[in-house]
Amino acid sequence: MEKRSFLIFLISIFFITSCKEHHEQKTEEVAFVVTSPIQRDTVIYREYVCQIQSHQHIELRALEKGYLQNIYVNEGQFVKKGQLMFRVMPLIYQAETEKSEAEVNFAKIEYQNTKKLADSNIVSKNELALAKAKLDKAQAELSLAKAHLAFTEIRAPFDGIMDRFQVRLGSLIDEGELLSTLADNSKMWVYFNVPESEYLDYITGKKSDNNTEVKLQMANHKIFDQKGIVETIEADFNNETGNIAFRATFSNPKRILRHGETGNILMPVPLKKAIIIPQKSTFDVLDKKFVYVVDSNNVLRARQITIAQEMPHVYVVASGLSPNDKILAEGLGKVKNNERIKYSFVPFDKELLDLNNLHAE
Q1: Considering the entire predicted model, what is its pTM?
Q2: 20 to 30 A Cα–Cα from 184, which one of 48, 81, 123, 350?
């Protein structure tokens, strides 16, 4: 009898404890947070892959044939406009210049002597004119010789950064042979392709002649510290891709950007009365997004939505919700469709503030 009474006592304790735990779990299960979408004007950013180029990027080529006698700069060096960079062996052109200078001096003396005789009426004016013509010819040949001599020196046409050398000191180079390239990176041209539909949205939504400001996301996913201006749109669409090329110009005072880099252009698109919800209130079924909408009877109804844009912590909803809907904000994994719940309502502005604080921490 004593054993039987003890067994009944244990079963009673277990039953009471289980009921208490079940009651506590039930209490926890109904503690859900519900919020509503907010509707406000906002700006989203469309992203385009881009190519970054220097606004001046040229090839440096030899103007004369000969041996590369001197290299005065180094690869990657910043050079100033007019700075001497290369010199091709100038011996022949130097000799031609000296010869032309001697002929100019001879023609000048001959002209001066002829002029004295002409002034004394010893020779005719025709002989004076012939002497003057010889002097002019000699001076022209000297100018040509100096031009050839100058061709042996390659100087920087603008401030810029040297690229890799294509030749080495002492190389025999031909006329027109590539020596290196020079890039002026003070200002960068960034090219990106825009689909036809988005081009039409851009061009029809533009309310003034003011150029659009854009951002540049570099290859390390950081935003470049200067804003760019969309200055140019090409004339024709590419029939194969259906895209048209835009060009944005970025100031590059710290010379961070280099010719040939890649990145992403972020173009702002203003949205009027956009519907915004927290990302954590959505769930995926295959490739579709859903939210739980709380109806007037506090029953959860799964509803499909479409996303217009993803932003930090939130989605901009294209369709499927209105500002008057109530959606489940937390605990999506603890409920199922058509389930009745109890909840506490939290305005989305407070939810958004909590999300931003969590991100900052």
Answers
A1: 0.68
A2: 48
**Where in the sequence is the domain holding 307, given as residue range(s)?**
32-41+272-360
Task: Give 213's contacts (C-beta < 8 A, 6+ positions apart).
Answer: 227, 228, 229, 230, 268
Beta strands per DSSP E along the chain: 32-35, 38-61, 66-71, 78-79, 84-88, 153-155, 160-162, 172-173, 178-195, 213-218, 228-233, 243-251, 262-278, 282-285, 288-294, 300-311, 314-319, 327-328, 343-345
Verify that 80 and 169 share a domain, yes or no. yes
**Domains in the chain, number:** 4
DSSP labels, 268-326: EEEEEEEEEEEGGGEEEETTEEEEEEE-TTSBEEEEEEEEEEEETTEEEEEES--TT--
187-244 confidence digits (pLDDT tens)? 999 999 999 999 998 888 776 667 789 999 999 999 999 999 999 999 999 989 999 9
Q: Is residue 280 part of a domain?
A: yes
Copy the structure tokens of residue 136. Answer: 């002019």
2 has a pLDDT exceeding 70: no
* CATH number, position 136: 1.10.287.470
Q: Are residues 252 and 284 in the same domain?
A: no
Distant-in-sequence, close-in-space partners of 202: CB < 8 Å, separation ≥ 6? 194, 212, 267
Residues 200 and 243 in one domain: yes
